């Protein structure tokens, strides 16, 4: 189902380190007294096996090829999740998300648009136009990952739905069903999970609707079958397992704003200068790394997105 | 014999979490599969922090248990209190070394600007004071002042529980359980104090 577009920096199967080399290299790393799992493990990641078309992405499109950082290992991406619908602990989603049924899956579209209605995932996402996007993901809890997502630009989805001019914001909802999402038995958050973007943010070429990562279909704990990824914002903006999209005039009251408005704002742009009231946002730990690193303004995407916030006080609009 | 056995049992049980986390850290360091999740430092932080509070609450439970059940537990109180110190020390070292790697500017900013960290650090400072004055000879030397000094544990426990509550992002269930137990233990002391005073007043009347 997934179409992998091969990029110049992709390794191929023949580049994969043999198991023997891998282990001796690991011993070397160990002997050198270096902690962290970094490079050696990353080489183990097979070069995204599977059929792909030799179709290059249209030029000028951002795909993350400038990110020289190592990609986070798949096992960490699928076992360390904040997805309270399946439990509060980081490993709860990977243990409990099997109860989520993602086929069939319908998304309700309503509000100010020409094409409201019920859509299957395949109707919203053009699976022939899937791209790989390697993005940093910075969680508000001060850890981060580098994830090779597979998806389409959110703007492609939105264009299909034809919002009218009165649509100033786009609003998303996660599924609410305690049978499939056992974590919803406790009211940690007012279910369903709600998120939103300003229309210009949503139409920005960096915003994507992801259906996969590492060349595979999304695991349930990562928000299958359809989730939002906005790489310059804190991870919680990336609403998972979406069942509803609305085009609205008013700024949506999102889940974390409801829970603690003095701590979480609507924009939630990654900003090392504006700390969370209870912990610093100046640094972060990349999963797999030992030392902290400095957090970058807009998570390193400032060149592309800073213009969206011209003239805005980002201290007040956090 | 029986006393020796129960002492051995208490020490064994108390040291088990420390041994377990040490073993897991060794596995992590050796690139072997471990239970510390993809973010081991965060896991160690939560683990050592929770055990610190548990041992503090246990220490505070000794007096009520002695009064209510007549078990002779008082002789174990110092050991249990020192285990609270051990886990607090591990928690502190994890923060200073693994988490912030002696990045003093970030640490100082954290302690001064973030009340949650301030409460934690204040709690740890008090814990250190109590630990270094816990020897028999300091107890004898300090005399009556020792008892007064060691009443710091009440403020310490409150400070640490507030720290626990403030550090949690959304699910405050566990900090609330800690706070509830602590409240019961503190209220029991207020009750003891009150009944003692009433006794005294009665005696004076008679």
Secondary structure blueprint with pairings:
The complex is a heterodimer of chains A (318) and B (206).
Chain A: H1 19-31, H2 38-44, H3 74-79, H4 92-96, E1 106-111, E2 117-120, H5 121-124, E3 131-138, E4 143-153, H6 154-161, E5 169-174, E6 194-198, H7 199-203, E7 208-213, E8 216-217, E9 227-229, E10 242-248, H8 255-259, E11 283-286, E12 293-294, H9 302-305
Parallel strand pairs in A: 1-10, 4-11
Antiparallel strand pairs in A: 1-2, 3-4, 4-7, 5-6, 5-10, 7-8, 7-9, 11-12
Helix pairs in contact in A: 1-2
Chain B: H1 2-29, H2 40-69, H3 77-99, H4 104-113, H5 115-132, H6 136-142, H7 144-150, H8 152-167, H9 173-205
Helix pairs in contact in B: 1-2, 1-3, 2-3, 2-8, 2-9, 3-5, 4-5, 5-8, 6-7, 8-9
Description:
The complex is a heterodimer of chains A (318) and B (206). Chain A is an alpha+beta fold. Chain A is 18% helix and 20% strand. Chain A has a single domain, classed as Oxidoreductase, molybdopterin-binding domain (Sulfite Oxidase, Chain A, domain 2, Alpha-Beta Complex). Chain A contains nine helices and twelve strands. In chain A, strands 3, 4, 7, 8, 9, 11 and 12 form a seven-stranded mixed β-sheet that branches. In chain A, strands 2-1-10-5-6 form a five-stranded mixed β-sheet. Chain A starts with 18 loop residues before the first helix and ends in a 13-residue tail after the last helix. Residues 25-59 of chain A have low confidence and may be disordered. In chain B, helix 1 (2-29) packs antiparallel against helix 2 and helix 4 (104-113) packs across helix 5 (115-132). The relative contact order of chain B is 0.09. By secondary structure, chain B is an all-alpha fold. Chain B has helices at 2-29, 40-69, 77-99, 104-113, 115-132, 136-142, 144-150, 152-167, 173-205. Chain B is globular, with a radius of gyration of 19 Å. The A-B interface holds A 26, 29-30, 35, 37, 75-76, 79-80, 84, 88, 90-91, 141, 143, 186, 188-189, 259, 275, 277-280, 282-283, 285, 287-288, 290-292 and B 29-31, 37-39, 41-42, 98-101, 103, 106, 109-110, 113-117, 166-167, 169-171.
